[in-house]
Amino acid sequence: MNKRKIEENIFRCFMVLSTIVVVGSLALILVTIFLKGFPALNLDMLIKTPKGGYYIGKEGGILNAILGSIVLGTGATFLALVISLPLVFYLNLCVRRKSRFAFLVRFFLDVLWGIPSIVYGAFGFTLMIFFGLRASLLAGMITVALVIIPIMSRSMDEVLKMIPLELKEASFALGSTRLETAAKVIFRQALPGIITAILIAFGRGIGDAAAVLFTASFTDSLPYSFFKPVATLPLAIFFQLGTPFPEVQERGYASALVLTGIIFLISILSRILSKKFSKRIVK
Questions:
Q1: Which of 133, 139, 145, 181 is nearest to 160 (CA)?
Q2: What are 170-187's pLDDT values in tens digits?
Q3: 34: how many CB neighbours lie within 10 A of its CB?
Q4: What is the CB-side half-sphere exposure of residue 271 using CA atoms within 13 A?
Q5: What pTM value is reported for the model?
Q6: Whole-angstrom distance, CA of residue 154 vs CA of residue 277
């Protein structure tokens, strides 16, 4: 066997091993959560709020945390979208792609992406004190939005960078303004990737615990006001697994199964929408 053949076989072994590690890790996580959480999962958990003493083994459910996570994640994703979409269009339509300014903005977004969410939680807590806010749904939305803005912006930016320059130049050549080019050409072409970026950011936001630990607090009530504390699934899991009661710990795994199911549904929805809108792309 010659040297090139040996190198090729070694590289192929590494690729197969890496694939097995990634797929195996995902399968192990899903199977563990399912086996530990499914026996404790019942209808009451999904449709009831915690009663007095739920976290010491009494009756109730996690409906407050399910709805709280969805509301908080939706609001944070909307706030992040309002900032991220104009930013990436500015970087790709109004600024030269290889300019120093664009490089610095992308560099700072990458740095922000790498900052742990507990740091965002501490920053959000500082902002709350400065503006005289209490731990609430609004404070949680703002903090989670700060966490997912870099994720959403860089994901959308990579999508827009893949759009051929010829499309933009053709649009300008036909007399279109920057706004018309952005809205009718670039946005339409990038829509599948933008939808995927939004749903990925939503999935990241709904599963974050550290960012909401100090800013959103926790409550047994359903979310009804921007200025009141809100329950979230990650914190519900944290509190249940932290108790010394085996029954409550099993409910914690059931809550983790519910959160995993929501993330799984978001991933499937992302694939479906991306495939649907990909049919309109000019190739």
A1: 181
A2: 888 888 888 888 888 888
A3: 16
A4: 5
A5: 0.86
A6: 20
- Segment 17-71, tens digit of pLDDT: 999 999 999 999 999 999 998 998 888 888 888 877 787 777 888 899 999 999 9
**Taking the mean position of all CA atoms in its chain, how far away is CA 105?**
21
pLDDT by residue (tens digit) across 103-160? 999 999 999 999 998 999 999 899 888 888 888 999 999 999 999 999 999 999 998 8
Q: Which of 241, 267, 263 is nearest to 36 (CA)?
A: 241
Maximum alpha-carbon separation in the chain:
73
User: In this structure, what token pair is assigned to residue 226?
Assistant: 């921007």
User: How many whole angstroms from its chain centre is CA 211?
Assistant: 12
Angle in degrees, CA 101, 106, 109, rounded to 5:
130
For residues 270 and 276, give the distance between their C-alpha atoms in angstroms, rounded to a whole number: 10
Report the alpha-carbon distance of residue 211 to residue 219 in Å, rounded.
16
54 DSSP assignment: G
| pLDDT tens, residue by residue, 199-214 | 889 988 888 888 888 8
Residue with structure tokens 């890496």?
18
Q: For residues 279 and 122, what is the distance between their CA atoms, to the nearest angstrom?
A: 44
